[in-house]
Amino acid sequence: MSRIHHIEKHRNDRIGWLRAAVLGANDGLVSTASLIVGVASASAGRSEMLIAGVAGLVAGAMSMAAGEYVSVSSQSDTELADMARERAELASQPEFELQELAEIYVGRGLTSDLAAQVARQLTDHDALGAHLRDELGISEITSARPVQAGLTSAASFAGGAVLPLITALIAPLPQVVAVVGGTSLLFLIGLGALSARVGGAPVLKAAARVAFWGALAMAITAAVGRFFGTVV
Asked: Cα separation of 117 and 134, whole Å?
């Protein structure tokens, strides 16, 4: 009897870095483009726009890295505390933990007898792993990685922020607002489509979502800069 090999490709392992990368690039692109548009709307010169843009890039990248690292570190600390508590409970009351695991499987649709067998076999194989995965929802795929998240956020923010900066550098000064705004929208649409493609989500919906919010941010900042006539 021939064996059929069925290969499945899932995208769960991309959740951590994809979230940080998309958030960073989107934030870098929108915030820097909005900053440049706001400064340009206040009738500032090219040097003022570029200084503001570079300052926004550096400050934003550092802020993203620090914020993402701190937030994901908090998640990691919680996971480690849960792991330590679960390890202690397995050592002090193994039978209770075995019953708890069986009840989880009953809740998922197994019969009591089958759930007890599954719980026993998984406990014999890797008790801590079974409880982390099925009781707490902690796995290798979803576990927190603070350094990876921080570096990814900083790099992606800088990558997104560079695009409107380059555009502002080469665009004719009288058309900077229109050129930076228009190209940034195109970049945002591309970013939304790319992130959706990588994550397996609907492309049009993701592209429209990031374009709408990016356009709104730039429009509001341009209005503020024009109204006050000062560098925002």
From this structure: 15
What is residue 48's predicted lDDT score, i.e. its pLDDT?
85
Query: Tokens at residue 65, please?
Result: 């890295």
Tell me the pLDDT tens digit for each residue of 36-95.
Answer: 888 888 776 888 888 888 998 999 899 888 888 888 888 778 888 888 888 898 888 888
Whether 2 maps to a domain, the answer reads: no
126 within a domain of the structure (yes/no): yes
Residue whose token pair is 């050592």: 91
CA-based nearest residue to 50, from 64, 61, 40, 62: 40
Residue 6 lies in a domain: no
Quick one: how far is CA 51 from the chain centroid? 28
Could you list the residue range(s) of the whole structural domain that residue 131 is in?
13-228
Q: In the chain, how many domains are there?
A: 1
Q: How many CB atoms are located within 10 Å of the residue 180 CB?
A: 27
φ, ψ of residue 177 to 5 degrees: the values are -60, -50
Which residues neighbour 178 within 8 Å (Cβ) at sequence distance 6 or greater?
none
Domain annotation covers residue 143: yes
How far is residue 184 CA from its own chain's centroid?
A: 20
Q: Is the pLDDT of residue 12 over 50?
A: no
